[in-house]
Amino acid sequence: MASYLHFSSLVLGYLLASASANPVPEAEPDPNPQVSLPPLIPSVPGFADPLSSLTPPLPVLQVPTPPKDSPPFVGSNIKPKKIGYFWTGAGDNDHADFLATYSLDDVRPSPDYGIMDNCSQSIVQDTFGTFIWLTDVPTSGNSPHHLGSTLDGKTLVGGGLLSLLKTQDTAFYFDVSNPYRPKFKKSNRALTAAITDEIRAKPDGGFLITYMGSAGGTSPGRLVETDSDFNIIAQHPQDVDGNANIFEDLFNPHGLSVDFDKNIILTSDFIVPLSILKPSLGKISDNTLRLWNLASRTIISTITIPNGGGIQDVKFIPGNKESAALATAVHLGQIWIIYPFRTDPNGKQGVAELFYDLGPKARDQVAI
After folding, report:
1. Can you give the pTM of this predicted structure?
2. Are 176 and 196 in contact (CB under 8 A)?
3. Confidence category of residue 149, pLDDT binned at 50, 70, 90
4. Is 99 exposed, middle or buried (CB count within 10 Å of its CB: 0-12, 13-18, 19+)?
5. H helices, E strands: number in the chain
6. CA nearest 261: which of 17, 22, 44?
7. Which end of the chain has less Cβ packing within 10 Å, N or C?
8. What CA–CA distance (Å, rounded) separates 136 from 101?
């Protein structure tokens, strides 16, 4: 199995968290917010292997072939205190994408191959890196990207960055109520958006997720919201002014940060996804962030970083008295500070100021 792995996404430690913030009202449900469809070509035993090998690669969109089954594996019955979940996929894009579960217990073993846990009076073994379980999803070639957890730690959601290339569902949910044997729960897709990216859990259940592009990979994308049953209930913005805003300037939300106490959201616009898929006429990068009212899910203002060349991420600074956030501008190789409650000379809410220049080597480098 190892030969098929490429770990293209983050590790999510199994951390049970409590919702300390006040509940936030959900959006008004969209009457037609989501769809979940089986693969266009059904999976037939013995048919997937020859079909995938005979199908030629195409520009941008790919033939939606059914996935090959993951190779057989032997799971482990260990029950570590710390767990790593890896949402990833096969290097050949033909085998099913999957969630891999590993032990992250990294306590050095005592001479008796264990160490006493003073709290539970049990032996904690060093099993770091031990494979526990593998959970397939019913599609392949999704380019697994971010992985997020509900605040109670019982459900994970993994995004498919390039699921649209095979016209597949774009978000995949896993039941981890038994943390050692995750089960695939469901998948879905938004009707107006694709290119699933950043994920934030809501205090009362469900998620807010940035979808960087439209259903065709262009601008505008959307801020997608689910309820506590992980049904898509809205694709923001939904109001007239908000839709006018995202069609006026490129809207390709990548980064996402939510301040539940101050009732604000920041999203950062990165790049038009279709512009970097081959064949391409050239990359189209964004220079903006959107400041949102959390309760109404409406855009307050557009904040511009001149010549930013892709605002890859934004994060609120914990404990900052002004609820300031840091944002990364890829082309400039700079970090900017965003003050969401300050106003500019024209009275517009939201101000961006240069915080730190990382220097010439950081310019046009994505991983800043």
Report:
1. 0.83
2. no
3. very high
4. buried
5. 2, 24
6. 22
7. N
8. 12
